[in-house]
Amino acid sequence: MTMIRYLDIQRMSSEDGPGLRTTLFFKGCSLACAWCHNPESIAKKFQIHWLSSRCIGCGSCEGVCPNGALLRGESGVLIDRRLCTGCRACVSACPALALECKGTDAEPDVLCRELIKDKAYFGRDGGVTLSGGEALLQEGAVELLRLLKAEGIQTAVDTCGMVFSEQLEAALPYTDVLLYDLKLMNDADHQRWTGRSNSLILRNLGTAARWAKGNGRLWIRTPVIPGATDSEENIRAIGERIQAIGGAERWELCAFNNLCIDKYRRLDIDWAFQNSPLITRRHMEQLLAVARSTRACEDIRATGALGNEE
Q1: Does 168 lie in the same domain as 81?
Q2: Which of 24-28, 88-92, 265-269 has the lowest mean pLDDT?
Q3: CATH number for 78
Q4: Tens-place pLDDT, residues 162-185
Q5: Cβ(153)–Cβ(22) below 8 Å
Q6: Within this chain, do residues 70 and 149 fall inside the same structural domain, yes or no?
Q7: Which of 56, 111, 126, 267: disulfide with 19, CB 3.0–4.6 Å?
Q8: What pLDDT is recorded for position 215?
Q9: Per-residue model confidence as pLDDT tens digits over 182-241
Q10: Whole-angstrom distance, CA of residue 270 vs CA of residue 203
C-alpha cells in the first residue's frame, strides 16, 4: 500500500503557483540547504516538537518514552534526538498539545479527497500544489497527481530537481505548472550549501524545459540568501542557463526570510543564518537588473519581504 508522508496542508495560498491554491507539504528532502525555511521537512522520519507556550508543566509526558528520549529540565522538556524514534507516546500523553509530531501518513486517495474540498475557491487558474520537502521523492506523489487531474484540478509541483529522472518524467504528464528551484550554478558552492552536487538538477532542468515547450508551464525560483546565493555572478549564471534552455514562463527571485528561527530551536538545531538580515530593497533591485539583463524569460520578478536600507 502506497503511503504519503506529509507535514501540513495549507489552504488559500497565493505563493505556491498561479491563482489561489491548496498546498500539500511532503516530508523528506534530497537536499539539506543550510538556509531551509522548513527544516522539519528535510528528514522523512517523524520528529517531535515541544511548544513551550502551550506547556502547563503537568508532567504527564515524564516516563512515557520507551527509549528514555524525553526528560523535563529547568528550562522545560528536553528531547534527546539520538534516542527519539518518533513513536509519539509523549504526544498522546500530553493533555495540552504541547508536544507535536511532525509528519502524518495517508494514502493518495484519502489526500485527494481532502485537497479537492477547496475546489470551489480555485477559480480559473488556481489548484493544488505538491511542495515539500521534495514531493517527487515519494512514489505516491505521481498517483496523487493522477487522481487530482481526474477530478479536473489544476496541479503544480514544487521541486528542487534532485530526484530520479524517471520520477520527474512520470509526474510531468499530470502536472500543469512546474516550480523548479535553481539555487547555485557553481557546483562546489552548491555542494557546500545544500550538501549535494547540482549536476542531476541541471540535467532534469533540461527535461523540464523540453516539457514546457510542449504544453507545460515552467516557473524557475531562486532563493536569494545573504552570503550564499545573492551574488551578481550567481544570478547572472542562472539567468544565462535559463535563457539557453528556453521554455521558462517566469523566474522568481525569492527573498530570504528569518521567520523560521523558532523551528530550528524546537528541533535543537543551530541555524547558520539566524543572525542574517533580510535582503535590502536596493540589493534586490540590483540583482533584478542583473537577472533581466540576461533575458532569461519575459517575466522576472522578486517575491518576499525585504529589509530596510543599510
Answers
A1: no
A2: 265-269
A3: 3.30.70.20
A4: 999 999 999 999 999 999 999 999
A5: no
A6: no
A7: 126
A8: 86
A9: 999 999 999 999 999 999 999 999 999 999 999 899 999 999 999 999 999 999 999 999
A10: 33
* Residue finishing a domain among 82, 102, 122: 102
Q: Which domain holds residue 84?
A: 47-102
In a domain, 191, yes or no: yes
Nearest to 86 by CA among 111, 105, 58: 105
**195/233 same-domain check:** yes
Tell me the pLDDT tens digit for each residue of 122-131.
988 999 999 9
Please tell me what DSSP assigns to residue 305: -
Same-domain pairing of 88 and 214: no
CA 229, 231, 234 angle in degrees (round to 5)? 70
Total domains, the chain: 2
Classify burial at 120, counting beta carbons within 10 Å of its beta carbon; exposed 0-12, middle 13-18, buried 19 or more.
exposed
Question: What is the per-residue pLDDT for 72?
Answer: 85
Q: Are residues 13 and 131 both part of a single domain?
A: yes
Residue 3 CB neighbours (<10 A): 15
Cβ within 8 Å of residue 34, ≥6 positions away = 193, 194, 228, 272, 273
Q: What is the DSSP letter of 62?
A: T
